[in-house]
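Suppose a colleague, Dr. K., hands you the sequence of a protein chain of 209 amino acids and asks what its three-dimensional shape might be. Before reaching for any lab equipment, you can write down a predicted structure in token form. Begin with the sequence itself:
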Amino acid sequence: MIKALLLLVRPVQTWDGIDRSARSIGYILLVHLLPLIILTSVAEGYGLMHWGKKQKGEMPFLKHYQLEEVVVIETVQTLLLLGMVFLGAYAAKSFAGTFHRRHTFRHAFTAVAYGCAPLLTLRLGDLSAFLSPWIPWAVGMVLTIAVLYHGLPCILKPDPPHAFGLFFMTSLTLAVINGMLRLVTSFYFIGRFPALEKAIMGIAGDTPS
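The predicted structure, expressed as tokens, is then:
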């Protein structure tokens, strides 16, 4: 979360430091990305148990989730968010190659993993039972795009004429991927996927307490 704040208030200096450090994918995954996702998942899980989520229907109500169900939901979300970052990094590398620059996957992963920090941090807005899930998502996405505006050129170093194209395509890809993920999770929490709810509750029932 501190890195997300620094990327917003001191983007150039922070990205330069990230570029110079040249951390490995494993380091970024274990020290930056996974802890951030797990921390926000724990926070959301706490909100699901203590404040619940408003389910729509003929008789709207607040549904509070049991610990076992929360563990399954947040584990799935963690895996999906990790998949989003890896897929976004693969897309960024592909776009960089399209623009006649050769980079390793590490460069693309570094840019996307750190660039998504605001989006992941704003998951804390999902603690609220009444706040629309699209509000924290939209704010986080805008901030992520702003961060990537500085980060992609710094890490991937495209030719100047191709820098905006790389930024635009990568940002659009991340917005589409995460937007679809947000759509599915928001529909789940308002009760649009009863079959999926039953499946998750069944898995949660098989999970040792």
